[in-house]
Design brief:
Blueprint (H helix, E strand, L loop, with lengths): L1 H12 L1 H12 L11 H13 L4 E6 L13 E8 L2 E11 L18 E2 L2 E3 L3 H21 L4 E9 L10 H6 L10 E4 L7 E6 L1 E10 L14 H21 L16 E9 L19 E10 L5 H18 L4 E10 L2 E2 L5 H14 L4 E5 L5 H6 L6 E3 L14 E3 H19 L3
Parallel strand pairs: 3-6, 3-7, 7-15, 8-14
Antiparallel strand pairs: 1-2, 2-6, 4-5, 5-16, 8-13, 9-11, 9-12, 10-11
Helix pairs in contact: 1-4, 1-10, 2-4, 4-10, 6-7, 8-10
């Protein structure tokens, strides 16, 4: 108990440092796309962690989606080995943030502190979690410099666009090999009293329907690809969406609406490309000979990916049987299988105890409606002992006036620190 009390004091004394660290991270605009300032934030983290005795690896994910000389995909991995052999605990946070969007009343990259909240793009998702994990690690090292095993902290690229230039690349290079790392905590914003065990699966596809171009005043001489796509949408409304609503999961997905299978229509475009912003003329009168739609299907642990794909293809076949001259193509864009760590896994039980000791309540177990980098640690790294746990309210992610609460970060840091004591304090 004395060790935990000392750790808590160390974290509380670092309150101001936690605020400044979070603000400085927010003031580096790591927008993705296109992938700005990745090296700058990696260098910042490297300087910070090197002062605490960490060995630093800077890894560029050459050849991954989005990587270029203008926008290189940089990652930082910091490791500190203890005095004795033991297991390794790894805190992984993504460094990229999404587009700012409209509707802000604060400077998106100002890191403004107001009423105990720090505002900025990425405050919640997930630079607040990154800062909390660093404070937890530094407080633990001050409390117990003679620890067993190893600690790693990473800042990785491109989670917001699939993680292929970040955790996926590092997993392929062996950084998440179970022989190297035994416990992974990803400080995503799932609320400080929740442990996120995993996420649903995803299947993205692009559908294109074809027609024949003709003069818009004589559409009967052509074949409208947009009308064909309209028939696809109608069939989805009548058959697919009702079927998805009947599929339910035992996974503790939050919010409640995500405990069923879902499908989102990301975009539809038919006919001529839209003109540039400075073009003020009218489009030419043509029957569209092409229409494209991108769909985002989220599926459950109980579903098979082949069945998910076949179910959507059946919609297109049903339309084909009803419509003359219906022609189409389907292209898969992205697939991720669902993942869920067992509630009895060591990292789950450890963090659950730390939540109860810190917050005085039992941990809630949840599953994310969307995917995050656990997918790569699981499928590529073959490391199952992985969870998401961190400060912040998930509903604030990607919203205007995104913020993270200072008290939430402090409490989460205490949970992370207590977890390190349990996992690494024993000889």
């Amino acid at each position: 108990m004395a060790l935990a009390e000392q750790l808590i004091r160390e974290i509380d004394e670092r309150r101001d440092d936690l605020v400044v660290l979070t603000q400085e991270l927010l003031r580096i605009p790591t927008l993705n796309p296109p992938g700005e300032n990745y090296r700058e934030i990696c260098d910042y983290l490297a300087r910070r962690l090197k002062k605490s005795g960490f060995e630093i690896d800077l890894v560029r994910a050459f050849g991954t989606p989005g990587d270029s000389d203008k926008y290189p995909r940089w990652n930082v991995i910091a490791r500190r080995d203890g005095k004795r052999s033991g297991e390794c605990v790894h805190f992984n946070s993504h460094i990229d943030v999404v587009d700012v969007g409209h509707g802000w009343s604060k400077d998106p990259f100002g890191g403004e502190l107001e009423d105990g909240k720090i505002y900025g793009r990425g405050a919640c998702d997930m630079k607040g979690g990154l800062a909390a994990s660093i404070i937890a690690v530094e407080a633990f090292l001050a409390t117990l410099p003679d620890f067993s095993g190893a600690i790693e902290v990473s800042g990785t690229a491109d989670e917001e666009s699939g993680g292929y230039g970040g955790v996926a690349y590092l997993a392929e290079k062996g950084f998440f090999d179970p022989e190297r790392v035994q416990h992974v905590i990803i400080p995503e914003p799932l609320n400080k009293d929740r442990i996120c065990l995993g996420h649903r699966g995803v299947w993205w596809a692009e559908v294109e329907t074809y027609g024949e171009i003709a003069h818009g005043s004589m559409p009967f001489l052509g074949d409208c690809a947009v009308r064909h796509m309209g028939a696809v949408l109608d069939e989805m409304e009548n058959s697919l969406f009702p079927a998805l609503a009947e599929k339910r999961t035992e996974m503790p997905v939050v919010p409640e609406g995500a405990r069923q299978s879902t499908l989102n229509i990301n975009s539809i475009h038919g006919g001529q490309a839209e003109g540039d912003d400075d073009f003020t003329g009218l489009p030419s009168p043509c029957v569209p000979d092409s229409c494209r739609m991108i769909v985002d299907r989220r599926f459950l642990l109980e579903e098979n990916i082949d069945e998910v794909q076949a179910e959507f293809l059946q919609v297109l076949k049903d339309v084909e049987n009803k419509r003359a001259s219906f022609r189409y193509d389907v292209r898969e864009l992205h697939r991720v299988l669902p993942t869920m760590t067992d509630k009895e896994a060591p990292v789950v039980r450890t963090v659950a105890r730390a939540i109860e000791e810190t917050l005085g309540k039992e941990a809630e177990y949840v599953v994310s409606p969307g995917t995050y980098d656990q997918k790569h640690i699981d499928r590529i790294g073959k490391l199952k002992n992985c969870i998401a746990y961190g400060p912040g309210i998930l509903d604030l992610a990607h919203k205007p006036d995104e913020y993270v609460g200072v008290e939430d970060m402090l409490d989460s840091a205490k949970v992370m620190g207590r977890s390190l004591i349990e996992l690494l304090a024993q000889p």
